């Protein structure tokens, strides 16, 4: 079983049971430079393998339009599906808006419950 871990100033990433876990650090603000670093580090960790992605966005406090556009396009590279886990309030309304406007190229759903988010990803493993 492969268990790889990567860390930068914005997030932590690890692969476990053929799912890539991605957790933003607390109080992160994402601009285009941050988005490019995050995607680059994730792709490096994946070593050319596509994975379903469990993305915990609860640490994000803000992001700009350029970052959201970049994540919607390049953020889908080497992903089979994405479950976004957020708080009930702000991040969910921001994220559902993002999904409507940016239309990611892989199946993507928003959850507040981590176990439901994992169940969604299991069919893509």
Automatic annotation (TrEMBL):
Domain DUF7793 spans what residues?
Answer: 13-124
- Highest taxon of the lineage: Bacteria
Q: One Pfam family this chain carries?
A: DUF7793
The record's section on InterPro entries has: DUF7793 (IPR056695)
- The protein's name: DUF7793 domain-containing protein
């Amino acid at each position: 079983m492969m268990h790889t871990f990567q860390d930068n100033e914005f997030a932590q990433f690890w692969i476990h049971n053929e799912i890539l876990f991605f957790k933003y650090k607390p109080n992160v603000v994402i601009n285009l430079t941050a988005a490019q670093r995050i995607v680059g580090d994730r792709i490096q960790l994946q070593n050319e393998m596509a994975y379903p992605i469990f993305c915990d966005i609860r640490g994000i406090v803000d992001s700009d339009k350029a970052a959201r556009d970049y994540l919607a396009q390049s953020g889908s590279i080497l992903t089979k599906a994405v479950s976004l886990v957020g708080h009930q309030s702000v991040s969910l309304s921001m994220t559902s808006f993002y999904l409507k406007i940016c239309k990611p190229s892989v199946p993507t759903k928003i959850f507040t419950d981590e176990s439901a988010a994992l169940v969604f990803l299991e069919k893509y493993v």
